[in-house]
Amino acid sequence: MEQVFLNPVLVWIILGFFTGLEFYLFRNTDPMSKKSITIFSNRKSTTLLIDDIAFIESRNDFTLVRLLNGDDVINKITISNWEDKLPHFIRTHRSFLINPNSAILKGNEIIISKKWHIPISRSFKTAVHNYFKNR
Questions:
Q1: What integer pLDDT is reported at residue 32 of this predicted model?
Q2: CA 122, CA 75: separation in Å to the nearest integer?
Q3: What is the radius of gyration, based on Cα positions, of the chain?
Q4: How many CB atoms sit inside 10 A of residue 56's CB?
Q5: CA distances from 88 to 19, 27, 84, 91, 99 (A)
Q6: Which parts of the chain sit beneath pLDDT 70?
């Protein structure tokens, strides 16, 4: 009986089984669900979950990241850089970039979490309407 437990082939089969089981049970089916982004805000590194971001607003020399829980994070990243870092977000205005997962199109504005009304500018109107029409 001791020879069965010391057999290297059996050990590899057991290790392979448990590795496969772990991969199957703990795999991430939605790659965007747990992604985060790290930025510098108030001279310190801040990590934000992408799904927690409601929208990003560009103000004169900084951008304001509004989270779904109402918190704000201020940083120096331009809205164009945000658009490159978050390709699935939608630009609705020269000053706004929204998370479409929590947004609803209503006329000429976007409503996010029933709290914020984000304008849609004329230059982005067609793209925004097409996105929500095809969603």
A1: 46
A2: 27
A3: 22
A4: 24
A5: 33, 22, 9, 10, 8
A6: 1-6, 27-34
pLDDT digits (tens, 9 = 90+) for 90-108: 999 999 999 999 899 998 8
Residue 126 identity (one-letter amino acid): T
Looking up residue 47, the CATH number of its domain turns out to be 2.40.50.1020
Query: Could you list the residue range(s) of the whole structural domain that residue 120 is in?
Result: 36-134
The pLDDT value recorded for residue 17 is 87
Any bridge partners for residue 106, and if so which?
A: 109
**How many domains does one find in the chain?**
1
pTM (2 decimals)?
Answer: 0.71
H/E stretch holding 24 = helix 8-26
Query: Residue 87 in 3-state DSSP?
Result: coil
DSSP-based three-state secondary structure for 92:
strand
- For residues 57 and 74, give the distance between their C-alpha atoms in angstroms, rounded to a whole number: 10
Question: What is the predicted pLDDT for the residue at 5?
Answer: 56
Residue 10: phi, psi to the nearest 5?
-65, -40
